[in-house]
Structure formats: C-alpha cells, structure tokens
C-alpha cells in the first residue's frame, strides 16, 4: 500500500486570505452602493418607495428590484474589469457605481417623461400594470450600458 502526501503551496493561505478579504470588501461596497442606489431612486421617485414595497404594491417592487439588478450589474463588471487587483477594483466599483446611480436616476426619469408614464400613480396601484415594465427595462438597460462601458 502506498500513501500519497499532498502539500499545500507556500502561498496557499495568503491567497485564500486575500480571496476572502476581497469577497468581504466587495460585498460591503456592493451593498453600500445598492442601498445608496435605492435611496437615490426613492428620493427621485414620487411617493415613498420603501413604504410602497412594504405595503405589497407590485409595481413598486418591480421598480425597486430592477434598480437593484441594475446596480449589481455595474458592480459586477467593475469587479471583473479590475482583473484581480483588489484596491483598483474597489475604486472602480465605487466610482462607477456612483456614476451609474446618477446616470440611472437621470435616464429613468427621462424615459418616464418621454413615455408620459406617471410613475407616482403607477407605483401606488394595488395591481401590476404593464407601464412599470418600461421603467424596469430602463433601469436594467442603463445598468447594462454603464456596466459594459466599464470594460
């Protein structure tokens, strides 16, 4: 019977620690950007989005969810563009995330203006309405545009 000995590389624990640190730091930054993005959307959208979501208003939930997905796309591509460089990746994610929030808020308000959607009225409805899909699509589409622009 033979026994094989498997040894860890000399930098194994260092690499593992760096990876875990990166996950924690990106998670914190991503969460902070998504929360900031939510408040920016809430602040610029008629009505109190958080209250409407808590009340179970489906259109408010769709707008909130699409805003979160959009912000996540931006953060993910900023992380990817950093090519494993942690400090640069965190800076990219933070800067691009803030630019993405501003661009998202402005462009979604413009889409609502051009399409004549009264988002304040749509958000308070008790039933899902198709107009909210236009606003949600604007959130996700802009998130994709900003995310790909990072590359």
The share of residues in extended strands comes to: under 5%
DSSP, total strands: 0
Mean pLDDT: 87
Query: What overall geometry do the principal axes of the alpha carbons give?
Result: elongated
CA-based gyration radius: 20 Å
Oligomer type:
single chain
**Which structural class best describes the helix and strand composition?**
mainly alpha
Helix content range: over 70%
What's the main sheet like?
A: none
> If helices are DSSP runs of H or I spanning 4 or more residues, what is the number of helices?
6
Q: What is the rounded distance between the termini?
A: 53 Å
What order do the SSEs take from the amino end to the carboxyl end, as H and E? HHHHHH
Tell me about this structure.
The protein has 151 residues and is mainly alpha-helical. It is built from six helices and no strands. The chain has helices at 12-44, 49-54, 58-81, 86-115, 119-123, 131-150. Helix 1 (12-44) packs antiparallel against helix 3 (58-81) and helix 3 runs antiparallel to helix 4. The longest helix is centred in the first third of the chain and has 33 residues, at 12-44. The chain is elongated and about 75 Å long. The N and C termini lie far apart (53 Å).
């Amino acid at each position: 019977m033979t026994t094989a000995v498997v040894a860890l590389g000399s930098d194994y624990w260092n690499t593992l620690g760096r990876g875990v640190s990166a996950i924690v730091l990106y998670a914190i930054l991503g969460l902070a950007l998504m929360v900031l993005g939510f408040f920016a959307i809430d602040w610029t959208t008629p009505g109190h989005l958080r209250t409407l979501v808590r009340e179970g208003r489906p259109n408010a939930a769709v707008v909130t969810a699409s805003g979160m997905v959009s912000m996540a796309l931006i953060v993910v591509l900023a992380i990817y563009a950093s090519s494993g460089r942690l400090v640069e990746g965190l800076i990219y994610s933070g800067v691009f995330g803030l630019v993405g929030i501003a661009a998202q808020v402005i462009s979604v308000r413009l889409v609502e203006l051009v399409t004549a959607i009264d988002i304040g009225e749509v958000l308070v409805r008790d039933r899902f309405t198709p107009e909210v899909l236009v606003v949600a699509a604007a959130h996700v589409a802009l998130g994709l545009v900003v995310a790909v622009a990072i590359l």
